[in-house]
Amino acid sequence: MISFQINNKSEGTFNMWVITVYGKNDVQMFEFDNQEEAKESFKKIKGSKVLTEVIYYNDFDSELIEEAYINSKVS
After folding, report:
1. Is pLDDT larger for residue 20 or for residue 57?
2. What span, in angstroms and rounded, lies between the C-alpha atoms of 73 and 59?
């Protein structure tokens, strides 16, 4: 099941967070509605893992996309 959270900063933008866990023989993905829940789960999961914020743009406003790119960060 995919859950979306409407981002209050701009209309037409939906966010979700995904944890991808790489096992010896498989890959598992977990989806979250909010960043806090995703970060707490990320701390508890053992092994090789990646936390990703997924942003969907419904209006394809180039200024919104540029703003999100500028504000994105890798940690």
Report:
1. 20
2. 23
